[in-house]
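pasting input
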Amino acid sequence: MLAKMRQKAKDLLSSGVVSTVIGYGEGSGNRVRALFIRKPDDADKLILDERCVQNLAVYLTKREVRALGRPAVVARVPVMRTIQQLMFEKQVAEGEVAVIGISPDSQVLDFPDLKSMAEYVSAIPFELSADEKAAVEKLEKMTAGERWNFWLDVLSGCSKCYACRQSCPLCYCERCTVECNQPQWVSVPSHGLGNLEWHIMRAMHLAGRCVNCGDCFRACPLEIPLNLLTQKIITDIADKFGGADEYALNAFKPDDKEDFIR
Amino acid sequence: MSRIGVFICHCGENINGTVDCAKVAEAASRVPGVSHSVDYKYMCSDPGQSMIKEAIKEKKLTGVVVGACSPRMHEPTFRRACAEAGLNPYLCEMANLREHCSWVHEKSEATTRKAVDLIKSMIEKVKLNQPLQPIKVPVTRAALVLGGGIAGIQASLDIANAGHQVIMVEREPSIGGHMSQLSETFPTLDCSQCILTPRMVEVAQHPNITLHTYSELESLEGFIGNFKAKIRNKARCVDEKLCTGCGMCAQKCPTKKISSEFNAGLGMRSAIYVPFPQAVPNKPVIDKDHCTFFQKGKCKVCEKVCPTKAIRYDQEDRIIDVEVGAVVLATGFDVLGTDFFPEYGYGRYKDVINGLQFERLASASGPTLGVIKRPSDGKVPETVVFVACAGSRDPAKGIEYCSKICCMYTAKHAMLYKHKVHEGSAYVFYMDIRAGGKMYDEFVRRAIEEDDVKYVRGRVSRIYEEDGKLVVKGADTLLGHEPLEIRADLVVLATAGVASSGAEELAQKLHVSYDSHHFFAEAHPKLRPVETNTAGIFLAGACQSPRDIPETVSQASGAASKVAGLFSQEELTREPLVAVVNRTAPPLYSTCTGCGLCMPACPYQAIEMEEIRTRDGTVVKVAAKVNPGLCQGCGTCVALCRVKAIDLQGYTNEQIYAELMAL
């Protein structure tokens, strides 16, 4: 399957269908880094193993990457879900991106267009893993006070490096609200309150959009379980809004449950 | 540097009673940027307004803060005063020192301190206010009237006679509503149909009225002056152009045992039918649920007998798009059929009927041709018991409100019975007699004194059948709670008047508010009784609460005059407090990411996507754009936008932040 992926990348580049293939390559110290292949011959540098989990869709909305021409991206299921969400949010249009799909059992998938990719990925149930569910349940079992202290404690170390934001493929806004200083709603220093404000805002901005790829957690130098917040929101949205195809925050239905408003 | 003028109103003793107004004015004068600060007994008075105007001219003020009552009361007053003095009216703001401070707190130091804080907060906001220009929008001079009862008829005729187009939508096959079902009307006892049908004909013939019967509103979009409505014309299965209304089809239809809605279940009709002889339009509809052809695929008798070949079994519902500037809601009410009191045996005993059914029994066009016969065996009843408040004014078992019309129609029913059956006896069980209205109390007195109707003040506890008679057990509370037992042949329950079925869905479709009983809510119970909270949508008749004919007609005329007033202008002026998507320098052009998630969030469909182009026409960005004509300034998009690319004019992010930071 590695050979097949490399061959596909080669074909896409040599036929001129894409000008860049975004995939995974060996980095320093047994780490994996994102690799931008521009020449067919370089395609053999691509790798694919269990270390290759970074959400490469993060590059699709970057101005610099766009300037390189049409890209192809190596996409496991979370990446495909991200592309689907980016399409929903009008950030990626049909024809702008080619996908080298990787199935959950590591088979290379061929998609003629993004629509068929979206159909494929929609058929795979979107749910949390057993471990993730357990973590959310543990959080739900806490009293309000315990939960408050838990988050204060967990977030106290945050230095607001914003690596979580940079790694998130859905944080594509060109000017983030935290950087707006007229007015400065979210305070800049990394103290308890400022940290809470930032993380609540980040989670709310991802409500109904997050694909649970886990890159924010992996990017965090302090290993703060940031994705626990979004996982809780994913659970709530599935419970309260029945996992609708629409964006949970802008679709109003008269029969929406209101039992969480107290 | 700002030059803000602060004007503190005493509102007589309303504010000054608990707040030290002089101290507030003094404290405000020390805020940087304030160049004038005074207090006065009544700022809204003529001298008070003159103080503001003079200060604007003399001190060259760049903004005005009036500390007084709620902006809902006097904001227009003060903004107009500012405009007269040459200051943009949107540079004037009010701090609510009355409802938000003096009325809700005791007289104390802290109350004055809070007033100072409210003023300071508003001063900081006004410093950031921008001069705004009112928005002009065109008006479509056509009205949509929903409901073809007397309310809708009156409103339509008044609007049409004022020279405007009216589109009337009625869900039943004929207009006329409940009034067409009534026998005689109180307090004059003139025949209901005789006074109604000329109006119905007038509607049908009026050149300015387009009638859509057997139709329902599918959707309504837009805003005052510019609504877009979709109307569903349900398939009648009859070609209205060919049909002459001869009635042959209904006569020959083999399915004749269908309970007639018009006769409130007391008569029968055929599957293809005209609800009543004076129906407008006089064109039949096929009731698909009961038609043999639609149920079993065989029959087509009506097609065979129709002399003009007007039957169309394959007719489909049609959706019609119309553009209107105003909507009148006149969807009426329903009479509760199923009783709230099972112990009265409603539905079990054929001779326990409701008020609307009695109307049909007493009506010359009814199933008994106006002879009062009881439904079970057709016998003329010798004793009739009328029970008022059967469900109304009963928070425990029924509804808590008074249905308003029952006292009067019950007196009328008893009277009609006595006029038709001279030797019969009529009893009325009542709680109170509510007969406020011109000639109303005299009418009830006439029933009691001249027509010998026996009024018993007390509730009925139980009704049961015994030897072909209905035994009514009650108590006479004016005779020491004496138990009373009347053996009656017919019992008429004055059941509650309730909101029309489907009222809740309709209200949601139109974005108008409604109460817990699903009656539509007026904008203000006293001062704006025919308006809803949605501009351009007006109320007429019993869809607001149960009411009688005179009141319904006056309200319908009131709603019509509101519509005519709206249509008297070519353009509407709207407040410029609308959302705006920002524009920034290249290469960003706007902080908007163009995600479009705000579009479905907007309750007014005011957001569209716009391509930002360079001078040579290249698209450099796709961003959201708010249509200022549609935007109502609710701020939902502002709250939803992650980048804060949308801001609300008059309430910008910066202004709100400055207000908060001043505290």
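fyi Chain B has five domains: 4-134, 142-234+317-332+500-567, 248-305, 334-498, 579-661.
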